[in-house]
Amino acid sequence: MNAHLPLIADITDPQLTQALQHKLDHKTKPLGSLGRLEQLALRLGQIQGTASPRLEQPQMVVFAGDHGLAARGVSAYPSDVTWQMVENFLAGGAAVSVLARQHGLALTVVDCGVARDIAPREAAPGQPSLLLRKVAPGTNDASQGPAMSVGQCAQALTNGMELVRALPGNALLLGEMGIANTSVASLLLARLCGLSLAECTGAGTGLDAAGIERKRAVLQQALDVNAAATAPLDALAALGGYEVATMVGAVLQAAAERRVILVDGFITSAAVLVASRLQPHVLQRCVFAHRSGERGHQLMLAQMQAEPLLDLGLRLGEGSGAALAWPLLPSACAILREMASFEAAGVSGQTAAA
């Protein structure tokens, strides 16, 4: 594969970790009383390499693409919904558009491989922007052969790396759109983790029981016809989507730059799974926003030893869960930077007898 992937260094720093924990333990509160927020603060300090982390110019990027598998009835919605939702994102009417606007997140939508051409446009200040990085108008049907060629996969990876290099800020929030992309996530989970499709496959956009069985049968065909594609990049090319491959490149680049990566749900986690199989230290830079209602997501999180911030039964995608979890991150940073210690505030600490 021609894409030159960055090397992701180990950022483990025991001395910094000890300093961060000491700082948290001596804030004006009972030990550990801020719960998971303290763990989050510790992770953000480790990613940024400082005891006073700051998040600047956060970027929500929604990667969009279509899938040949959609023609096999693996989704409750037609593939036209992909381009229609892209237009909805740009018009400001989608859930992620609303949440990005609420929380001051710059929103960029990337056409990685939508089947219909999206008209280029100039974004007004503060409005969602569109990047055209289309490799092809949708992937091939993975149940009949590879979804994309090795060269197409490499181009998508390169596109993802280049677009992150051009983005400001130090935090990347992942979102996606693509009818049938829960099928892609299920396939990648099954192939890379050696799990059965029965464990990995759920309702996606809302299939009934018969629809889920039909979906599993189609996905089994995809695994069988691409049986030789077992290495991470081979599996990505054979089973993946252009939006997922572009996201893998984006994750690798963001990790190389030590940006905080806020991961949304099942599909974005699949991109991180692939990236982590290429470069394991990617996971040191990731914060997982939520545990989705999609069947395979819990298994995927377990494979990456990830503990998400929220569990709200979400399964919309788009980056909506990442946007909802986002306010916890600047809050954790602010606690580290601004909350007083017992000594500084003149507050008595815990007594030895307690």
From TrEMBL:
GO biological process terms, semicolon-separated: cobalamin biosynthetic process
Molecular function as annotated in GO: nicotinate-nucleotide-dimethylbenzimidazole phosphoribosyltransferase activity
Xref: CDD domains: DMB-PRT_CobT (cd02439)
Keywords: Cobalamin biosynthesis, Glycosyltransferase, Transferase
Pathway, per record: Nucleoside biosynthesis; alpha-ribazole biosynthesis; alpha-ribazole from 5,6-dimethylbenzimidazole: step 1/2
Catalytic reactions of this protein: 5,6-dimethylbenzimidazole + nicotinate beta-D-ribonucleotide = alpha-ribazole 5'-phosphate + nicotinate + H(+)
Active site: 318
Keyword Transferase: yes
Residues spanning the signal sequence: none
Cited InterPro entries: Nict_dMeBzImd_PRibTrfase (IPR003200), Nict_dMeBzImd_PRibTrfase_bact (IPR017846), Nict_dMeBzImd_PRibTrfase_N (IPR023195), Nict_dMeBzImd_PRibTrfase_sf (IPR036087)
Family: Belongs to the CobT family.
Described function: Catalyzes the synthesis of alpha-ribazole-5'-phosphate from nicotinate mononucleotide (NAMN) and 5,6-dimethylbenzimidazole (DMB).
Name of the molecule in the record: Nicotinate-nucleotide--dimethylbenzimidazole phosphoribosyltransferase
Annotated organism of origin: Acidovorax temperans
